[in-house]
Write a sequence for this structure.
């Protein structure tokens, strides 16, 4: 078994791919492309997503005193269907923007990162992970057609739609007070 501190070093090393060394870049726009998959998601503890195939394009614009990152991603993630529980690939896409400013005190606000003037690189892995998680729809139906109509296994859906059999013996033993209330509903 690997010691805990070595595991954290390995985790950091796998996410260094998402570090942008901005100090040596000239002012203007620069393009970075990434492929996000199972290895990326496995680096995050208690992740909502475990597997996917996502292309990420980062347009990095270096300006005097600040930087602007435009992130555009598209691909699929593996999720279980909310209707039939079958695993499938759910298409997702999104775009977002991060602004990086320099200040004496590092910190973050919504979509604004503050770095100290001595910083030389920016790791965007955690921000990318959050953007992807936020783009996942609340209703996950990976087995839907082009018109977003579910194409789930009809046997499973029929089974889920059936009413559980009622137990008449239990109904007979109901307290008379509850029986009166049940009639009023």
């Amino acid at each position: 078994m690997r010691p805990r501190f070595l595991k954290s070093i390995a985790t950091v090393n796998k996410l260094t791919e998402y570090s942008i060394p901005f100090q040596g870049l000239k002012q203007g726009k620069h393009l970075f492309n990434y492929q996000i998959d199972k290895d990326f998601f496995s680096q995050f503890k208690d992740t909502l997503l475990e597997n996917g195939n996502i292309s990420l394009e980062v347009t990095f614009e270096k300006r005097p005193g600040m930087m602007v990152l435009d992130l555009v991603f598209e691909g699929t993630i593996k999720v279980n269907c909310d209707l039939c529980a079958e695993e499938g690939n759910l298409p997702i896409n999104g775009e977002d923007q991060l602004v990086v400013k320099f200040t004496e005190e590092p910190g973050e606000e919504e979509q604004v990162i503050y770095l100290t003037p001595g910083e030389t690189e920016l790791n965007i892995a955690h921000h990318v992970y959050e953007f992807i998680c936020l783009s996942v729809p609340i209703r996950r139906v990976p087995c839907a057609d082009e018109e977003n109509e579910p194409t789930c296994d009809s046997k499973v859906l029929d089974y889920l739609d059936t009413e559980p059999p009622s137990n008449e013996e239990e109904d007979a033993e109901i307290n008379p007070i509850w029986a009166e209330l049940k009639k009023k509903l």
